[in-house]
Amino acid sequence: MLAILDQLPDGFLGASPATLHEVLPSPTLIELPGQREDWLFVSALLHGNENTGLKAVQNVLRAWHGHPLPRGLAVFVGNPAAARLGVRHLPGQPDYNRVWPGAPESGSPEQAMVRAVVERMRGRRLFASVDIHNSTGLNPHYACVTRLGHDFLHLAALFSRTVVHYTRPLGVQTAAFSALCPTVTIECGKAGKAASEKHASDFLDACLRLRRFPARDIEPRELDLYHSVATVTVAPDTRFSFDGDEADLMFVPDLDHMNFRERPPGTPWASVGEQGLACLRVTDERGREVREEFFELRDRRLVTRRAAIPALLTRDAHVIRQDCLCYLMERLALRPDAGR
Description:
Elements: E1 3-5, H1 20-23, E2 28-32, E3 34-44, H2 52-63, E4 69-77, H3 80-85, H4 109-122, E5 126-133, E6 142-145, H5 150-159, E7 162-165, H6 173-177, E8 183-187, H7 194-209, E9 224-234, E10 240-241, E11 249-251, E12 268-272, E13 280-284, H8 291-294, E14 295-298, E15 301-304, E16 309-311, H9 317-322, E17 326-331
Helix pairs in contact: 2-7
């Protein structure tokens, strides 16, 4: 499945997400040498409907066309077939950001493919790894790290002062590369926005140019730091709606406006039918069911039991079914020695 190229293929810079499959028929790793030998690894289109990563890589390579890159750049383009249709992944495919080393072993060809990418990059000197994503709900641009190391936080802060530390879900690219170099996932808001593409492009360009990370400790005032503590999913047999249509779970219409806003106990999320709390699954970082810690029912209304900060709340039914409804976070104080 994996193609490996040592030069930019014809047509890549002009391809749209819908036509990229004509240039890259399969998942592809493109390795472009640069002046410094500590490489930047970038993954894009792990989800086919999140195309800011492709646009950002194209923008950066156009800007450097005809000039040597400041450092080696390795670009993994994950799922051109899904990008052709504008979907997260095709029916029968796994989620391409849940199959990296660290995921439960399934023996799938996709797991073998990304394991080969990691092993190939292990043989190079890596400066940093960047995984580029979009969201379908209303979210700010923010960075995600799986470790609170010094260089990880400096890399994240280069993109946004809003930073989320997480350990779930398993099998994500950022966690897989964290043993090799500083890593970050950048969440660039909704796809198709020119401002998002420019922000991601500027960040990648900065990563190419940056000689080293600052030696000083990052200070708490430089970051708004959060910790992801739970994942919220809708039970498979639960019908849900956002527009008032009759369903087992009738969410408030503006649910995704709560993203990155701390909501007090008693905040309504939905009206609930006969299933009650069983309509939701809420799992903590250890995979334990904790829905009654975060939610309760009051007169058939689903409300929060405790204060929490949602992220990636979405109204997109396909994303909710294929991934999750949202994550729940708490603010995290940065200890003085956290980055050491």
